[in-house]
Specification:
It is a single chain. This protein has 198 residues and is of the alpha+beta class. The chain has 3 domains: 35 residues; 63 residues, SH3 Domains (SH3 type barrels, Roll); 62 residues. 59% of the residues lie in helices and 19% in strands. It contains 4 helices and 7 strands. It has a 5-stranded antiparallel sheet, with helices on one face. The longest helix is centred in the middle third of the chain and has 58 residues.
């Protein structure tokens, strides 16, 4: 606001060409100051009034307290233009610092530590679940290995002729059938004795 009033006074006193140049320069300065907004924090144990203009006669928008983060927009003589939330206004110069105060840093670190603790607890729970799953898979693998070994032994026994009792029973049945056939033929070939009835 202070800058705008000074620019208007300069434009009134200059000619048309100079007025255009000054207006262009003012637009450039405003764009550059908005582009280089940097984050700062209110320092010391203070409460600062954020005002609509660079002076104590301007209306108060809100009160800033120690640890409030603001964006630095513009510097003027004795005043600094800042943005805090939805408000943009002026505070006296010399009450900002480029780093967060220790209380804000401690709060941020406490929050980060708590987040890391929760993540660690989650990771520990996942690791316990993975260990349990690994134990189950190991037991299942051992059971499948023993079953595979049993099947391998049965297969080897089958290949080496472990079926000889079946073969023996089959050949015994075949032999008995042949003997029975021979006996039946022998009985059928015997001459029959005729009995004479009187």
């Amino acid at each position: 606001m202070f800058f705008h009033r000074a620019a208007r006074r300069a434009v009134r006193g200059a000619g048309p060409g100079a007025a255009r140049a000054l207006a262009l320069l003012a637009c450039f300065a405003l764009g550059a100051s908005a582009a280089r907004a940097e984050k700062s924090w209110v320092q010391g144990e203070v409460r600062l009034n954020l005002r609509t203009g660079p002076g104590t006669e301007f209306r108060i928008l809100e009160a800033l307290k120690t640890g409030d983060a603001v964006e630095l927009v513009e510097r003027a003589e004795g005043w600094t233009r800042v943005r805090h939330g939805e408000h943009e206004g002026w505070i006296p110069e010399g009450y900002l610092q480029p780093t967060a105060p220790p209380a804000v840093q401690v709060d941020a670190l406490t929050t980060e530590v708590e987040t890391l603790r929760q993540e660690l607890a989650t990771l520990n729970a996942e690791a316990a679940g993975l260990r349990e799953s690994h134990a189950e898979l190991t037991a299942r693998e051992a059971k499948q290995s023993s079953e595979l070994e049993r099947l391998r032994r049965e297969n080897n026994a089958f290949r080496t002729g472990a079926r000889w009792p079946e073969w023996f029973a089959g050949s015994a049945l075949l032999t008995m059938g042949m003997l029975l056939g021979v006996l039946v033929r022998a009985v059928a070939a015997r001459p029959r004795i005729r009995r004479v009835r009187l």
